[in-house]
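Lab notebook, bench 4. The sequencing result for the construct came back, and we need a structural model before the next group meeting so we can plan mutations. Quick request posted to the team channel:

Model the 3D structure of this chain.
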Amino acid sequence: MVALSVNLNKIALIRNSRDTEIPSVTDFAAKCISAGADGITVHPRPDQRHIRAQDCFDLNPMLQVEFNIEGNPFSEGRKSDRKGVADYPGFMDLVRDIKPTQCTLVPDSDSQLTSDHGFNLIKDADRVAPIVDELKSMGIRTSLFMDPDPKQIKIAAEINTHRIELYTESFAQAFCNKKDLESVFKIYQTAADAANNYGLGLNAGHDLNLDNLQKFCGIENLLEVSIGHHLTVDALEMGLEQAVRSYKKILNS
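Done. Here's the predicted structure in token form:
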């Protein structure tokens, strides 16, 4: 069975469009869990455009499932420019305080609309390795957001991360366009095989949806998918609980 971790960023984005606490991130987390979600994912950014630092603290004590916090480990603290919103403490300080089940390190920047590439460990391994070591020393399962490149995955294993999360955008595009799907799928399976051979656990995420998820679940040794944007869109049509159950049905098949 592949685990489903529901990303709540889009719920927080709706809330942040008004000066309100509705919709409640914690309430929606509880609904996801009730419907069968195996985990909750958040990706706080320094501009707090969606998930805020306080959301992480609010979620932590109420979750009875795995808590995955994603983000750039090099993101520093930032003063909040919005009334009533606490300052962003810096990604690693946030993780040190909360100690989530899993921490997924992502090389994103403030200028990116969303995550759009994995780590280049040929360049950044020396910076990332001490962070992996620190997270592991705190008992936090650590995952690195990676492109499906076996050479990069080998380096991820060398710096002793527990898992990698494959960035699945190119698969989603190939599925949507019905162009080169099998060759792209093979690239991901080769990457998954490399992760397995190096003893790494395998997660995946980005633009996975009800249409393409079953195909991607043909990837061997897949442990977890993180899905937020498309699940939220589906929830607008079928309701949140039914959307979560629909994704779980595919993952359990």
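The chain has one domain: 3-252.
Will bring this to the meeting.
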